[in-house]
Amino acid sequence: MLRNTDQRYGVVAMVLHWLMALLLIGLVVLGLYMSGLPDVGFNKQKILLIFYHKEFGILALLLATARFAWRVGNVLPRLIVQLPDWQKVVARFVHLCFYGLMFALPISGWLMSSAAGIPVYFFGFRLPDLIAQNEYRFQLLIDIHMWLSYALIGLIVVHASAALRHHFLSRDNTLRKILPDLRR
Ligand code: HEM
Ligand code: HEM
């Protein structure tokens, strides 16, 4: 079943969820690692890692666009009925914040590169600069990109712990509805 039903996520939403979870966690780990490398001299390894981070960061932006479009055009599976109202609101709010971050992170990274005067490439294509070179804005965007990443890390911890708690402690269908149904 490609599309969502009101009971469970369809194949497209499932694939996008898990592919993007891997990609975003990978980008956070790579981002934290590479930005900690020393700048002294011409650090070839750091430059190469930033290059990959930017390419895969733009891929995340494209996937986020496809995912958002798919979500808008699909029914949203219901949250389990026995969930208290406040938890329903928090769960949906976290999902909404994830969508915000899936756009804000790559766009802030792209703006940051433009402000630094360094072009962004996407697998061979040179993307346009979003803003003019400006040192003050570059420094500001580094901070914005970093704090957005910290927000993403915090939300992933809350979201993944809630999912695991539902699966192993409450033993309900929450996690199963976004995993392949192996009984069929
Ligand atoms: C969802 C996508 C992205 C995530 C999760 C992400 C995450 C991160 C993280 C965690 C850091 C380290 C922050 C720090 O400690 O300072 C970082 C740094 C960086 N990111 Fe991203 N990023 C994403 C997309 C992008 C994109 C699309 C670009 C550019 C086109 C980009 C450019 C950079 C650059 C240049 C740095 C190094 C900043 C510095 O000099 O310290 N990022 N990113
Ligand atoms: C970067 C990491 C992650 C992000 C950005 C993310 C984002 C999302 C979003 C936006 C949804 C709502 C459905 C949709 O629009 O696709 C969702 C649903 C869900 N996610 Fe994640 N997720 C991540 C990682 C994880 C992990 C690691 C787990 C499990 C340990 C998990 C378990 C779930 C479950 C069970 C649902 C279904 C919730 C429901 O509708 O009741 N997610 N996720």
TrEMBL record:
Membrane topology (UniProt): Multi-pass membrane protein
Subcellular location, record wording: Cell membrane
All copies of domain Cytochrome b561 bacterial/Ni-hydrogenase, residue ranges: 8-180
SUPFAM superfamilies found in the cross-reference section: Transmembrane di-heme cytochromes (SSF81342)
Assigned GO CC terms: plasma membrane
Keywords: Cell membrane, Electron transport, Heme, Iron, Membrane, Metal-binding, Transmembrane, Transmembrane helix, Transport
Organism lineage: Bacteria, Pseudomonadati, Pseudomonadota, Gammaproteobacteria, Cellvibrionales
Cofactor(s) this protein cannot do without: heme b
Keyword Hydrolase among record annotations: no
Species annotation: Microbulbifer hydrolyticus
Name of the molecule in the record: Cytochrome b
Coiled-coil region list: none
Annotated family: Belongs to the cytochrome b561 family.
Pfam families noted in UniProt: Ni_hydr_CYTB
